[in-house]
Specification:
The chain has about 400 residues and is an alpha/beta fold. The chain has three domains: about 55 residues, Alpha-Beta Plaits (2-Layer Sandwich), CATH 3.30.70.20; about 190 residues, HUPs (Rossmann fold, 3-Layer(aba) Sandwich), CATH 3.40.50; about 130 residues, TPP-binding domain (Rossmann fold), CATH 3.40.50.1220. It has eleven helices and 21 strands. The strands form six sheets. Strands 11-15-10-5-8-9-16 form a seven-stranded parallel β-sheet, sandwiched between helices. A hairpin with a 6-residue loop joins strand 12 and strand 13. The protein is globular, with a radius of gyration of 24 Å. The termini are far apart. The chain binds flavin-adenine dinucleotide. The site of flavin-adenine dinucleotide has 32 residues, from helix 8, helix 9, strand 20 and helix 11.
Length: about 400
């Protein structure tokens, strides 16, 4: 979709000031759209004479939306197990499906993954679509895109939820583009729009300064990726069962254009924040990068992952994959240690669903203490080594 200026432009300049990207300039008394344009449409709505219009690049296909039903959740598999985010989304998908009076289905793709269908049923699925084969042993964009688009063409879901993981962020947009629908990426909230009955996808926009709620009125399926740990995993009910629909794979070896040569694990327990039960995070209060070892030692003693505030990441003390918060990871461990972190709203956005929060801060009025279950007022450089030693002793004794 692009935005174009028609010859009706009267050169009033109203569009120039409303463009959030500074993409419009006046030339010879007419508005000219530059490369920075994202086709957000702010100028279209503002132009007093309707001289700026959206140019439809994607060929509109008349779509019978009533043919599309059911809520699907793509269940990502890692090392023979469903990733937690798939189960979290089945829990939330169940609510959407019930509100829409539709069925909830899991999509399971992989090599020898049939045994995981029971996890999907236990998490709330009524059906599971199963596509198996050696070509799905490792994730590949080509094979998985073909599998999911074929499933959509055959069974026509109304909604598809995927985890905003590396694979989900790769697969979701590729599938959406291939079938010509929209996708709302990186959602932090889901609901049903009361007026239209459509899924209301909520996500941070404009660098996290506002929350935008997005609808997909014209195309099906409605698609979105959702961050891990935004929703709680439902308690499994292994008494539940459902319909297992086996679908033959149509992927041919020549369809897969990439070859997995080697898997190099750069991420160990310490950066697996989304799955971690204990996280120790450090912020600017650590004072200097060398002091981050105090956080790492405590995490090590507890078998936990290491997190960081954006200030610590921006200072180059830790890589971005450790960042917790609105523009970092959303986490939900059993215990979250915030060490030398003030508790800015953007940090809280990523960790407030932690079961227990323990804060260490030298300022008794730091906002983090308002959300902490336990607070230690003190210098991180003194407190953290003591905690580490004490936890080590308890571990050795136990
Ligand atoms: C759009 C947007 C998105 C953002 N996204 C994120 C995000 O995803 N994650 C995130 O974390 N932030 C994010 N931020 C930044 C956020 O607003 C804060 O600036 C940031 O969280 C502050 O990090 P901090 O708590 O480490 O540092 P500070 O706010 O500087 O706090 C340091 C704290 O350490 C304490 N302290 C100092 N010395 C010691 C000591 N020796 N011992 C104990 N305590 C000490 C101080 O009392 C203070 O409370 C975002 C901001 C914006 C505008």
């Amino acid at each position: 979709m692009a935005v174009i200026v028609t010859k009706e432009c009267i050169g009033c300049g109203a569009c120039v000031s409303v463009c959030p990207f500074g993409a419009i300039a006046m030339q010879d008394g007419k508005a000219v759209i530059g490369d920075a344009c994202t086709a957000c449409g702010a100028c279209v709505d503002t132009c007093p004479v309707g001289a700026i219009v959206r140019e439809q690049e994607v060929k509109e296909v008349a779509m019978d939306k009533t043919a599309y039903k059911d809520v699907w959740v793509y269940i990502e598999v890692a090392e023979g197990k469903p990733r937690n985010v798939g189960l979290e989304l089945l829990g939330e998908g169940r609510k959407l499906a019930d509100a829409m009076g539709q069925k909830l289905a899991g999509v399971l793709i992989g090599e020898n993954v049939e045994g995981l269908a029971k996890e999907a049923f236990a998490a709330g699925a009524d059906k599971v679509y199963l596509v198996e084969g050696p070509e799905y042993k490792h994730y590949s964009t080509d094979a998985y895109t073909i599998a999911v688009t074929d499933l959509i063409a055959a069974y026509k879901p109304s909604v598809i939820l995927l985890g905003a993981t590396n694979d989900g962020r790769d697969l979701g947009p590729r599938v959406a583009c291939r079938i010509g629908t929209g996708l709302t990426a990186d959602c932090t909230g889901l609901g049903i729009d009361e007026q239209t009955g459509l899924v209301a996808w909520t996500r941070p926009a404009f660098g996290g300064n506002i929350m935008a709620t997005i609808l997909c009125p014209d195309h099906r399926p409605q698609m979105g990726t959702v961050r891990p740990k935004v929703f709680k995993k439902p308690e499994p009910d292994y008494g539940r069962t459902g319909e297992l629909i086996r679908v033959a794979s149509k992927v041919k070896p020549e369809d897969i254009r990439s070859k997995l040569v080697e898997v190099i694990k750069v991420c160990t327990t310490s950066c697996n924040l989304e799955e971690a039960e204990i996280i120790v995070s450090g912020g600017r209060g650590l004072g200097k990068p060398e002091n981050f070892c105090l956080v790492e030692n405590l995490a090590d003693a507890l078998g936990g992952a290491v997190g960081a505030s954006r200030a610590a990441v921006d200072a180059g003390w830790k890589p971005a994959l450790h960042q917790v918060g609105q523009t970092g990871k959303t986490v939900g461990p059993k215990i979250y240690f915030a060490c030398g972190i003030s508790g800015a709203i953007q940090h809280l956005a990523g960790m407030s669903s932690s079961d227990i929060v323990i804060a260490v801060n030298k300022d008794p009025d730091a906002p983090i203490f308002k959300v902490a279950d336990y607070g230690i007022v003190g210098d991180v450089c003194e407190v953290l080594p003591i905690l580490t030693e004490e936890f080590k002793k308890i571990k050795q004794a136990g």
